Model the fold of this input.
Amino acid sequence: MENAEKGVRSATENPEEKFEREREKWWSDKGVVSLSFRRHSRYDYGGEKIPAGSLTSEGITLAREEARKWKEALPDDAKVTIFESPSFIPAGMREKPEPHMLMPSRARQTASIYEKEVFGDLAPAEEGDDPLYKMQSTRRKLASNLGDFMEHVTEEEAAFIPAFFKTRKEVYGDDIGKFWEDFTAGTLEPRVQEALEKCGGDGSRELAEHLAAFIREATDGKREDSAGVLKEKTVNLAVTHGETMESFIHYVRQFLIAEDRQGDADAISAGTDFGYNKGFDAHVKNGELFIEGGREIVKVGDIDAFLEYLKKNKHE
Done:
């Protein structure tokens, strides 16, 4: 009788319902570490009314709305850890209470909004080891591997950042979409590529490698115990940047296509959105990575194998 009922359900169930049932299984499985990657919310570019890099009032509202939706979809027994990119936009010097550089971080501000929506309040801040961020929420963790394409620039290289943006403007004008398209594909105009390398900025392959390393580190050790069942459902929220996620997904697609899995690559593309407060969801079980596609959970494969693929093809 049970099999017959399953047969009837399969015949009448639409693809969306089937996908939602599959998602529920992954999100409730304690042997799976589930990860949500989200781009920071809308922020100010010009710094005329608020410091450049700070979330706008619209961005704050949108982040709250998305955070509430995300919380409502969580399993009841989820243990949530929030990771955040430390990347900031220099917004000028301030003299009071003592001379200091304003460094608004759009990802950190967005993460704080998620924290309040998920937990109901903001945890106390403690002094950390990061020289730029003296205080850090005890519930959230800085993760440089979630940073933007300028995150790993050294102090000496930073002097060449203005020249990079000047060159980008000369070559791409106001067509920033074209710049990011070429950046992701690794086909930047030579002058821009040279300027990016001179200022120490990361390319798309490096960003993909950083994000893969983050997944590896954030899920390492959270495998099934000797009884075959973890004690709690682990959920990691990672607040990051559009170029970081898009670069990662680009190379996941290349990895799958190299294995003659074009259909899986297309399915993953259908499940990603890199707009503000958007992103993608993924799962790791026993070291294997799965990404939610448009209507299916796509198995990418062993995360270490993907990292090796990125390193092996680094100079191709």
